[in-house]
Amino acid sequence: MSQTTVLCMASYFKGEAFMRQAKLEGAKVFLLTEEKLAHEKWPRESLDEVFLMPDMTKVQDLIHAISYLFRANKIDQIIALDEYDVENVATLREHLRLPGMGQSHTRYFRDKLAMRMRASANGIRVPNFTSVFNYDTIRDYMGKTPAPWVLKPRTEASTMGIKKINNSEELWRWFDQLGDQQSSFLLEQFIPGDVFHVDSLVWDGKIVFSSSQKYGKPPLSIYHDGGIFTTQTLDPKSKDALALKAINAAMVKSQGMERGVTHAEFIKGHVDGEMYFLEVAARVGGANISDLIEQATGVNPWAEWARLEIATIRGETYKVKKSFQKYGGLINTLAKQEHPDMSSYNDPEVVWKSDKKDHAGLIVVSDTIERTNELMDSYVERFSNDFLAVATPKESAH
Ligand SMILES: Nc1ncnc2c1ncn2[C@@H]1O[C@H](COP(=O)(O)OP(=O)(O)O)[C@@H](O)[C@H]1O
Ligand SMILES: [Mg+2]
Q1: How far is CA 37 from the centre of its chain?
Q2: If exposure means fewest CB atoms within 10 Å of the residue's CB, which of 82, 275, 347, 355 is most exposed?
Q3: Burial of residue 124, with CB atoms counted within 10 A of its CB: 0-12 exposed, 13-18 middle, 19 or more buried
Q4: In the Cβ-directed half-sphere of 124, how many Cα atoms lie within 13 Å?
Q5: Mean pLDDT for each 10-residue chunk of the chain (398 residues)?
Q6: Full set of structural domains in the chain with CATH
Q7: DSSP strands (E only) in 81-168
Q8: Predicted local confidence at residue 36, as pLDDT
């Protein structure tokens, strides 16, 4: 068999476990990243070559560079390691006629309006929403759907640019401010509730592994009011976990993913107790969620994703690694210290600590949910005394 070649694209430093596993599978592994990330700790021993570009948002430059690379290297697949690379990879796949999700299909995992329209057409419960292309449509929506609403960018991530809107006057004022950007937003009902995420591996349209966790405070309230980010593994037999499993499976089917990895979010409404589909991405969950899942289940989503992609290229079957069920908790905050001292967080359940500048973060894991809850409750309180800093929100990640 000829050598398998994968090109990983990353405009953010992440995905080391993917690249390592791809190498272990015997593939030739290329990385394309930005010049400003050249110094990061990429797993160089697993990389056959690293290519640098000054600006990975310039898709025409990417098409030229990668087509040039292709002349002497038969690339079997291109993988987007970061959310912001997904669209460009889809464009490159279309240009080079590679298999996998192309531009239209990628929209169901990138564009919040496209993903909502598809999911709701397939009967998945979503917050009432509308496009904001047309004034009559917007007025009609506001007449039928009580405020508050959220006005959100269709393709941003990490809660950036989301605005909570209390009445129509506020909405029109935002539109004045947004100008030509207006059509890149959507409007939907604000559903007060708890926010969950489900991270899955998909093979032949079926979910072969998933792990469900609940965020402490909803990401939007942390973004606006500050506070400590936490997320914790659910008991897979709990009512919430079972409800999530059902809606997640229906959603993955609706969006038509055949093989790959997903990170999906859902809100459980405080008013009606129902699960609403919030968003899905064709990538591994960020912010150390993959580390949490690995600690809680033994499955590293990055590494499994690599195995799955390489099996696909080679026409082999893929079987997910055997998992176990423990209960993990992840806690993370912007710290007021540059190198916060976490040495007093030394319970035996602490399995990972962040070494990121200006951040404090750790992961605990235990065989029982009670112990994880107990540790997380006490650590959240201690983190807010020891480290918590408040930063001003950004409008865009890149
Ligand atoms: N319809 C909604 N109702 C209530 N909260 C919402 C709604 N949409 C988004 N949020 C809040 O904003 C956060 C980010 O929204 P999300 O759609 O997940 O976008 P992002 O891609 O930026 O994560 C959510 O985690 C949740 O806290
Ligand atoms: Mg989100």
Answers
A1: 20
A2: 355
A3: buried
A4: 29
A5: 92 97 98 98 98 97 98 97 96 97 96 98 98 98 97 88 95 96 97 98 98 94 88 97 98 97 98 98 94 98 98 98 97 94 97 95 98 97 90 56
A6: 5-99 (3.40.50.20), 128-189 (3.30.1490.20), 193-386 (3.30.470.20)
A7: 129-131, 149-153, 163-165
A8: 98
The pair of three-digit structure tokens given for residue 192, joined into one six-digit string: 């007060």
Q: What is the pLDDT of residues 53-73, one digit of tens each?
A: 999 999 999 999 999 999 999
In ligand 1, the atom with minimum distance to the C-alpha of 161 is 22
Phi, psi of 207, deg, nearest 5? -80, 115
CA 398 – CA 381 distance, rounded (Å) = 32
Q: Are 334 and 322 in contact (CB under 8 A)?
A: no
Rounded Cα gap, residues 139 and 133, in angstroms: 11
| Length reported for the chain | 398
Q: Give the model's pLDDT for residue 393.
A: 56
Tell if the pTM clears 0.85, that is, is over it: yes
Judge if the beta carbon of residue 113 lies within 6 A of ligand 1: no
Pocket test for ligand 1, best of 151, 159, 270, 395 (most atoms within 8 A of CB): 159
Give the containing element (helix H, strand E) for 152. Answer: strand 149-153
Burial degree of 334 (CB within 10 A; 0-12, 13-18, 19+): middle
Give residues whose Cβ lies within 5 Å of ion ligand 2: 265
pLDDT of residue 388: 87
Q: What's the pLDDT score for residue 225? A: 83
Please state, in angstroms and rounded to a whole number, the distance separating the CA atoms of residues 248 and 251: 5
CA dihedral 86, 92, 93, 94 (to 10 degrees): 110
- In whole angstroms, what is the distance from residue 329 CA to residue 296 CA? 9
Q: Which of 267, 272, 277, 280 to mutate to test the pocket of ligand 1 (most atoms within 8 A of CB)?
A: 267
Residue 339 and residue 243: Cα distance in Å, rounded?
Answer: 40
pLDDT score at 48: 98
By the 8 A CB rule, do 391 and 4 touch?
A: no
> What was the pLDDT predicted at 347?
97
State how far the alpha carbon of 247 is from the alpha carbons of 110, 212, 266, in Å: 19, 12, 9
Residue ID of nearest Cα to ligand 1 atom 22: 159
